[in-house]
Specification:
This protein is α+β, with helices and mostly antiparallel strands. The protein has one domain: Ribonuclease Z/Hydroxyacylglutathione hydrolase-like (Metallo-beta-lactamase, Chain A), CATH 3.60.15.10. About 20% of the residues lie in helices and about 25% in strands. The strands form five sheets. A six-stranded mixed sheet has the order 3-4-5-6-7-8, with no helix packed on it. Strands 11-12-13-14-16 form a five-stranded mixed sheet. A hairpin with a 2-residue loop joins β18 and β19. α6 runs antiparallel to α7. It is globular.
C-alpha cells in the first residue's frame, strides 16, 4: 500500500499535537497483559504494537465459564467477560463489571435467556448498550426491558422490541463504579456505530466500526475516513492500546496500526490511488492489505 514517505509516528504527530501521548504509545504491553488486572506490571519487555504477536490470544487460555447451544463465554479478567455466538462469524458480546453495576455491550444474534446467562457472572445490576443495531449485535435485545442505542439517520429500534429505549450521545459516560466507559461516535460501517472506551484500562470495545479484519463500509468512504482520523487521535490521547471487536477470535483486536492502515486505504481509494477488486453485491469492491479487507461500494467513493 503506498502512503506518504513518512513514518506512522510522524503521521500521527501531524494529526495531533499530543506528542507526549504518541511517544508513550510507541511501545505497548501485550493484549494479554492489558487485559490482566494490573496492566502497569507488563511494562518490562513490552513489544512494539506493530508486532502482530502483541494482539494475538488463544481463547482457550481464558477460563470457560459458560457453554450453551447459542453462546460460549470466557472470562478475560475478574471484571470482563466475552461471549461468542456461532451464527454470524463468532459474533461477540462483552460484559463489563464495575463496583456498583455492569454493562452488557451488544446482545449477539439469537441467544435464548441471555439475561439469565449474564446474571451468572455478576450480582450487580446490568444495563445494556449497543455498538450498532445490526441483527448480529442486537438480535437478543428482547431479553432485556431496557437498552441504550445511538439515534442516527436511518436507524430504527430493533423490530419487535417492546421495552424502554434510551439514546446515547457522543461522549456519554457509563459510570459503573470505579470503572467508566465513554461513548465515542465512529460512523462508517453504519451511521450509528460507536466505540466504548475504557481509558483507565487502556482498552475499548469497537463493534464493527473497524471490521474485525473485514470492514464492511456501508457509508461514504469520506465518512469512515473522518471517523478513523478522529479515532486514531483519540487512541493516542487516551493511550488506548487495543479495541476488542464485534467478531473477536483472539487474533484480531483493533490497534492504532489497524486504524492507521484502514485510514490510509480510505484516503487512497478517495484519491484514486487505490482500487479494490470487483466483488458481488452492494459492496462491489474489496481492497486487501496484510490480511485486512476493506469492502466498499464504488458509488460511495466520495
Amino acid at each position: 500500500m503506498k502512503t506518504e514517505n513518512i513514518s506512522r509516528r510522524q503521521a500521527i504527530r501531524k494529526m495531533t499535537t499530543v506528542a507526549a501521548a504518541a511517544a508513550v504509545c510507541s511501545q505497548v504491553p501485550s493484549l494479554a497483559s492489558v487485559l490482566a488486572a494490573e496492566p502497569e506490571s507488563a511494562d518490562a519487555g513490552s513489544q512494539p504494537q506493530d508486532d502482530p504477536r502483541v494482539s494475538t490470544l488463544k481463547m482457550e487460555d481464558f477460563p470457560l465459564v459458560y457453554e450453551g447451544p447459542d453462546v460460549v463465554f470466557h472470562k478475560l479478567n475478574d471484571h470482563l467477560w466475552i461471549g461468542n455466538g456461532h451464527l454470524m462469524y463468532n459474533e461477540s458480546i462483552y460484559l463489563v463489571e464495575g463496583q456498583k453495576s455492569a454493562l452488557l455491550i451488544d446482545t449477539g444474534t439469537r441467544i435464548a435467556d441471555l439475561d439469565k446467562i449474564v446474571a451468572r457472572f455478576t450480582d450487580k445490576p446490568i444495563d445494556v448498550a449497543l455498538t450498532h443495531t445490526h441483527g448480529d449485535h442486537a438480535g437478543s435485545v428482547g431479553c432485556f426491558d431496557h437498552f441504550w442505542m445511538t439515534q442516527a439517520e436511518g436507524i430504527r429500534v430493533p423490530r419487535g422490541y417492546n421495552g424502554k429505549v434510551s439514546y446515547m450521545e457522543n461522549g456519554k459516560k457509563f459510570d459503573l463504579g470505579g470503572r467508566t466507559l465513554e461513548v465515542f461516535y465512529a460512523p462508517g460501517h453504519t451511521t450509528d456505530s460507536v466505540l466504548f472506551i475504557d481509558e483507565a484500562n487502556h482498552i475499548g470495545i469497537s463493534g464493527d466500526a473497524f471490521g474485525s479484519t473485514n470492514l464492511l463500509m456501508n457509508l461514504d468512504v469520506s465518512t469512515f475516513l473522518a471517523s478513523a482520523r478522529a479515532t486514531l487521535k483519540m487512541m493516542y490521547e487516551k493511550q488506548i492500546y487495543y479495541m476488542l471487536p464485534g467478531h473477536f477470535d483472539g487474533t484480531n483486536a483493533e490497534t492504532t496500526k489497524r486504524v492507521f492502515d484502514l485510514m490510509n486505504i480510505a484516503q487512497g481509494v478517495l484519491d484514486g490511488k487505490l482500487e479494490g477488486k470487483p466483488a458481488q453485491g452492494n459492496l462491489n469492491r474489496i481492497y486487501t492489505y496484510q490480511g485486512v479487507r476493506f469492502n466498499y461500494s464504488d458509488k460511495r467513493v466520495r
